[in-house]
């Protein structure tokens, strides 16, 4: 039972809470006999819910009270402290004397220490990953600065210590105590079936040898015929990962004479041919190490496209001669190489080299890698391995892990039915696409894009991080809310959908952080900016992003089909990419690292087919904004709107968290003055003449000129003059 009258609504952490609701939940706890919940403010400005409970008759409180409440109520309604009493203090009239309830003893700054060996292990790993000296068992991973990249390392390190934990568990219980209570056992980790093709190779591959894909013997013959050397040169066959499916679809829309937006170029400069050959050798050794870099695609005559891993795939190197005409040898080299690649040939990277016509002894190398092979994290892995080989440290690299493990996790982890249920609930009633600037073409080739950059004010960046920590969310959540508000204005609708890029390595299995390959995925986010206050919007976005992480391997096509938008139209045409962009340091000026004499001359930034792409670079201290927009969109406008909204959002969270999100103004005072006043100042000085006088002048000059158009009807000035005279006669009468 619960006793005492519930308090009126109180505001705790920006939310309106009725303590009586919490008391009702506590009454259902099997170990609680009596309970009362109050909002205490023992420290000015720090109001917290505190539960006072009296155990059942045996005097023992069975079970964890906060976890019990957390399973039934939102996180902000979970008491900050639970005080166990022998009996509740009563006033003279028999009611609970709330003024006599003792103040709880909160743990000190770091929270209480570990009470079990398992809690000690988890606390230690938390501290290692977060780079702090000590973490208490109640400390929140995300409040301490954790984010998706660090979460990958956290989950991996815990698994290496024998503590199997899923990403879902981390999101639900982001504290050492919560994870320890979740228990071990490898939850969320898929047992990957072994590759059935013998290591020494065979001349005939059977269906049983390919556990990750269903192919008949005849279809396997088609695959073998597509590979140089036949079956003996095939090391594995498996399906495409989610991101690969989308990239492959867009590749099919282009032909050999067109530009493939997903063919990523990098131009390198070398002080000698010897230095160039050293890089080519290192690149080949990286290709030899990783299955994803020895893969090509086969799709014709098959039920679905597959990637076929060769045992040996030589990096194609083409030497060309540059004329030097035009004064830009890099552009000439890229023009000779072209911007399209046959995906049936492995590896899906190639190199074109040429002597620099303007400098004796200098060489240029163009490395083109298809996005089917790597995302940003994978590129960093490959670059570090190339440097290791060039510096003579390649033997110290860890044993490579196959990309097939990730494909298995993506295919065999969360079921397709679970994906469909999640996205049907999220998008089932969405019937119209969200089109910023009216841009509806989601099949572009990346050309015609205009870009703009903006560094977020340093003071504002500090405030963003403070609000994120206070709410226990990542700054990424705040930027997602901000973009939803901006997008509502650009698309002219309150209920908006946009794409977000997911790291893809949260549920990818062991060693995911060091496996090359395209793990990233694009999935939809939805928010109705007219449906929540700013705190509620942040909480809703936090929950949605957490849910997406569980479904991070769902194909985008599946999510789009779950909506009510017609198949011929895109669900969304804008993309938000929140990325942790601490620059990796590479000096290139020391013979010891093997890269002296090598210079990166140009590296194309990632492009997508989306007409509006917003990138938020988390630089560790500040934030950078970048907008890539096609006409008639304005990238500078987009960056400015995001900065204005994030500042207004933070101000609302600081001072008035009950502010409706739609009242967060995307226009700065200067922009609002321009739109409302300057652009509406349409008055024209015409001298001492009336409107009737001006009309009469036109009638006298050209009676046949069109004066009014309404639908298919057109009225000339002469006709309008007759009609107006007729109306005037009626009015006079």
Radius of gyration: 32 Å
Low-confidence stretches: 1-7, 106-110, 583-592
Work out the helix count.
Answer: 21
Question: What is the structural class?
Answer: alpha+beta
Oligomer: single chain
Distance between the termini: 83 Å
Strand content: 15-25%
Shape: globular
Query: What is the typical, i.e. mean, pLDDT?
Result: 83
Largest sheet: 6 strands, mixed
Descriptive account of the structure:
- The chain has 733 residues and is α+β, with helices and mostly antiparallel strands.
- It contains 21 helices and 21 strands.
- The strands form 6 sheets. Strands 13-19-18-16-14-15 form a 6-stranded mixed beta sheet. It has a 5-stranded mixed beta sheet with strand order 10-11-12-7-17.
- Strand 10 (317-319), helix 10 and strand 11 (349-355) form a beta-alpha-beta unit.
- Helix 3 (117-130) packs across helix 4, helix 3 packs across helix 6 and helix 15 (475-491) packs across helix 16 (534-550).
- The longest helix is centred in the last third of the chain and has 21 residues, at 635-655.
- The radius of gyration is 32 Å and the shape is globular.
Short description:
The chain is an alpha+beta fold. The chain has 21 helices and 21 strands.
Reconstruct the topology from this structure.
Blueprint lengths: L9 E3 L2 E3 L1 H9 L4 E12 L2 E10 L9 H6 L10 E4 L32 H14 L17 H13 L6 H6 L3 H7 L34 H9 L8 E6 L2 H11 L10 E8 L2 H17 L5 E4 L7 E5 L6 E3 L9 H9 L11 E7 L7 E8 L5 H15 L13 H9 L3 H12 L21 E7 L2 H14 L3 H17 L3 E8 L18 E8 L5 H17 L5 H6 L12 E7 L17 E6 L8 E7 L4 E8 L4 H21 L13 H10 L12 H11 L4 E5 L2 E4 H16 L1
Parallel strand pairs: 4-5, 10-11, 14-16, 16-18
Antiparallel strand pairs: 1-2, 3-4, 6-9, 7-12, 7-17, 8-9, 11-12, 13-19, 14-15, 18-19, 20-21
